[in-house]
Prior knowledge:
Oligomer: single chain
Distance between the termini: 10 Å
Strand content: 5-15%
Mean pLDDT: 94
Bound molecules: adenosine monophosphate
Low-confidence stretches: none
Number of helices: 9
Number of strands: 5
Shape: globular
Strand order of the largest sheet: 2-3-1-4-5
Helix content: 55-70%
Amino acid sequence: MKKPLILLITGAPGCGKGTQSKLIVEKYQLHHLSTGDLLRKEVDNKTELGQLINQYISIGKLVPDELIINLLAKKIDSLLESEFNGVILDGFPRTLPQAETLEEMMNKKEISTDILVDVSVKEEELIDRLLKRGKDSGRADDNLETIKHRLNVYRSQTQPINDYYQGLSKYVQVDGMGTIEEIFTRIENEVEKIVSLK
Ligand code: AMP
């Protein structure tokens, strides 16, 4: 049996990873696990956990590693119980401990992550996109103050995972400027290289 395709997508808030993930999922028939969506669902359901999560998301902080790792581990376990083509992890890992835990977890299951795709976009463009999205989506964390904080959090906590995956020879940076189609073609070219080796 072919090994499943395990893609990770990262980038600063507003880089378009959610949009690109949806296109990749369609093209390669993968599961889409967006940790941001999972967390927002908990918040919308107004569970106790959701209220706790909202205290972090609403001010642009990352939720604690332990919380997100537990949530994601359950989802990955249930995926692995079924036969599946592959998955794209959108927004995970977002810290070094998350990356290390994910790699350990996959190794134990004798599965390997394939690549971390880093969608790179200039800061002015990120802020512009997020402010526009805030008007349409009503996402509480898409306001200027929270956006600036999220960008700082990205630089200090998330960017270090790029070096970690570079060290594993599983890192590729893709230019995230241009149209959705142009960016998708760049990502698709990288994914094709992996698919052809499977
Ligand atoms: P996103 O939809 O990916 O932009 O994520 C929205 C928010 O959810 C982030 O600003 C964090 O507060 C939280 N979040 C999403 N993924 C993670 C993660 N892997 N670790 C911690 N917090 C996360």
